[in-house]
């Protein structure tokens, strides 16, 4: 196992606190809508369609909760499990959930996405945004997402696409990390882990993959 498959995140300490603020901020929302691509709205459509108001969602590498909290606010019943190995990120998430009165629908899970501490088949949906590009072995994490989703459940991955901007952002990480994804590459990854009904779409500098277990 490399360090990456255990605890190798750059999102801790001071950087974690600063990025935790940015990732949950209106500045991030604005940059996404104006520059990178409005990926969150697309993910929310996919999740709400899969859940119909209730269910269990896992957000892998949830960060400050940019996706988790938006999903939780759409749920009538159910919960969002927010997995991250950065305590700083989860601290931001917890505080924002309290402010937004969403704590009853949010569960924090500190740990590695390579070994998700959840039983097989216990989730209706697993999502991950902006995480796989900064992993050395993204396929292992995708396999874990598939494992914890029930048969018929949905797996949704969004990440930087291999555009000039996607490559630029990915180069801020470790050289051994995977980096941004091509559409065909993400499709193949979904096929390789046994997902079905696969849809892979480009949204400006992002790519979104959706599959059914
Ligand atoms: C770019 S941030 C994205 C956060 C969130 N998904 C969002 O869209 O705002 C990447 C997050 O993945 C987490 N992360 C990176 N590697 C991880 C791993 N192996 N296991 C769990 N979390 C990880 C980091 O701590 C960080 O919070």
Beta-strand segment tally: 7
Proportion of beta-strand residues: 25-35%
- Principal-axis shape equals globular
CATH architecture annotation name: 3-Layer(aba) Sandwich
Order of H and E elements: HHHEHEHEEHEHHEE
Number of helices: 8
User: In the CATH scheme, what's the topology name?
Assistant: Rossmann fold
Q: How many domain modules?
A: 1
Tell me the span between the first and last alpha carbons.
27 Å
Radius of gyration: 16 Å
CATH superfamily: Vaccinia Virus protein VP39
Largest sheet: 7 strands, mixed
* Widest sheet, order of strands: 3-2-1-4-5-7-6
Based on secondary structure, the structural category is alpha/beta
Q: Please write the CATH class name.
A: Alpha Beta
Low-confidence stretches: none
Q: Which ligands, by name, code or SMILES, are bound? A: S-adenosylmethionine
- Name the average pLDDT: 91
Structural account:
The chain is an alpha/beta fold and 213 residues long. The chain has a single domain, classed as Rossmann fold (3-Layer(aba) Sandwich), CATH 3.40.50.150. It is built from 8 helices and 7 strands. Strands 3-2-1-4-5-7-6 form a 7-stranded mixed sheet, sandwiched between helices. The protein is globular. The protein binds S-adenosylmethionine. S-adenosylmethionine binds at residues 9, 11, 23, 61-63, 66-67, 83-86, 89, 112-114, 129-131, 134.
């Amino acid at each position: 196992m490399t360090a990456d498959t255990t605890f190798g995140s750059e999102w801790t300490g001071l950087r974690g606190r600063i990025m935790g603020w940015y990732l949950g901020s209106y500045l991030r929302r604005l940059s996404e809508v104006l520059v990178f691509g409005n990926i969150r709205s697309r993910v929310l459509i996919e999740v709400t369609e899969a859940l119909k108001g209730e269910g269990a969602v896992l957000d892998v590498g949830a960060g400050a909760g940019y996706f988790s909290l938006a999903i939780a606010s759409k749920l009538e019943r159910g919960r969002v499990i927010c997995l991250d190995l950065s305590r700083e990120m989860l601290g931001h998430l917890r505080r924002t959930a309290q402010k937004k009165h969403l704590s009853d629908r949010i569960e924090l899970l500190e740990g590695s996405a390579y070994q998700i501490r959840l039983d097989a088949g216990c989730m209706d949906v697993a999502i991950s945004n902006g995480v796989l590009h900064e992993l050395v072995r993204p396929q292992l994490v995708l396999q874990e997402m598939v494992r914890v989703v029930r048969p018929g459940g949905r797996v949704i991955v969004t990440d930087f696409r291999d555009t000039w901007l996607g490559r630029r952002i990915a180069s801020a990480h470790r050289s051994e990390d995977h980096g941004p994804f091509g559409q065909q590459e993400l499709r193949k990854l979904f096929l390789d882990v046994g997902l079905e009904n696969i849809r892979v779409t480009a949204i400006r500098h992002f790519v979104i993959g959706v599959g059914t277990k």
